Amino acid sequence: MSSFYFHQTHRILFLGLICNKFYKHPKAATIVFKETPGKQILLIKLLVLSCVFLLLQNITFNYFESMASTSEREKPHITFGIIADVQYADCDDGTDFSKTRERFYRNALNLLKNAINDWKRSDDPVAFVLQLGDLIDGKNNIGGETSSKKALSTALNPFNSLHIPVYHVIGNHELYNLNRSFYLTSALNSSLSLSIETSKSNLYYTFLPHPKLRIVALDTYEVSLLGYRDNPEDENYKTAQLWFQQNNKNEDINDVSGLDGLSKRWAAYNGGVSERQLLWLSQVLQKAQSKEENVIIITHIAIQCEDRDYAICLAWNYDEIMNIIRQYPCVIGVFAGHEHAGWDFLDEHGIQHITFQGVIETRPGGNAYATARLWDERLTVTGLGRVPSCNIRLRFPI
Predict the structure, then answer these.
(1) Nearest C-alpha neighbor of 302 from the set 329, 277, 339
(2) Dihedral pair phi/psi, residue 349, rounded to 5°
(3) Of 315, 178, 304, which Cα lies nearest the Cα of 240?
């Protein structure tokens, strides 16, 4: 209780007792005030008015004190940014592989800067950013390794002005440019510069930005046909070749013609995770469940899709990943990139899947990013531009 509130309450009680005494014993007023009966009544009325005034003052103070307290409670516990598929390249605008969707390579860097500037200007400080893969486009590889590294440096540079952690996942376009071995020692391997739980030989990791929120980053190109040009004997690359040969017989490894439904995921621009990563994921989620942590999974490739006839952007062994996730109710959401049109749906287990719209296919003047806020009972994702907003209910309220 504040000092103001304490003293005002005692003043009201004191004056109330006096008024009550005079009301029950009118002669007492004659003794105390030594005035005529008319003046006695006037003085008693003044005492009553004083009580009313102090009471109103007290109520007003309590109202504003309550409002301030409510405002303080309504501040989010933590705020973070989300952005996907920037795919910057210093080249003219173009289209996707199907020649049906425009891509704005140079302008993508401007939109990234817009997002960063908005986060910097926000009254609600952003604690970190999730970058969901494909920061640079495969077109940079036309100029060779030097061109790819220059583009990566250019795309990473705007993040430096935030002076906060940026957590990355690897996309297919990173691997069109440079091998996995390069990224293990680059800024895109978030574990190198940040104190997070992982092995520095992996591109998957986890961290805890709040006692009730855990982020788990998957590497859905660990088993892949991409990024192993310098290490063709790697077991994960051999596994990828075996899986692919069993599921896609087309000469062009990005051709899914002849494949139906979920089988359309068997294209080289997708990939999967190893048995080792699956075991790691299970161990992380088991620990998170026991500690009542709400978990968000981040990945470049989606690990579930609502439209089973349109599974062209789906992790190869998505079913194995989801079988593990479904065992642990602590998982409340999966954030992905890769499919630039974006989509979202709530699955039958109450997990919110969001594929964020790609910056690369956002026209100049538009926006494509989101800001997430952790509240007592929910995580809100507020989209800007092409990205819609949604609310995710926490399994374990704060």
Answers:
(1) 339
(2) -100, 5
(3) 315
Rounded distance between C-alpha atoms, residue 302 and residue 110, angstroms: 26
Q: Average of pLDDT values for 15-27?
A: 51
Q: What is the CA radius of gyration of the chain?
A: 31
- Side chain identity at 259, as an amino acid letter? L
CA nearest neighbour of 137 among 173, 94, 190: 173
Q: What is the mean pLDDT of residues 47-60?
A: 55
Q: Tally the residues of the chain.
A: 398
CA distance 57 to 64: 11
| 19-33, 100-114, 354-368: segment of lowest average pLDDT | 19-33
Instruction: Give 239-246 contacts, CB < 8 A, sequence gap 24+.
Output: 239/274, 240/271, 240/272, 243/272, 243/316, 243/317, 244/268
Pick the more confident residue, 366 or 24. Answer: 366
Torsion angle in degrees (nearest 10) through CA of 370, 371, 375, 378:
10
Tens of pLDDT, residue by residue over 237-251, are 999 999 999 999 999
| Contact call for residues 126 and 119 (beta carbons, < 8 A) | yes
Q: CA-to-CA distance for 61 and 315, rounded, in angstroms? A: 58
As a whole number of Å, the end-to-end CA separation of the chain is: 25
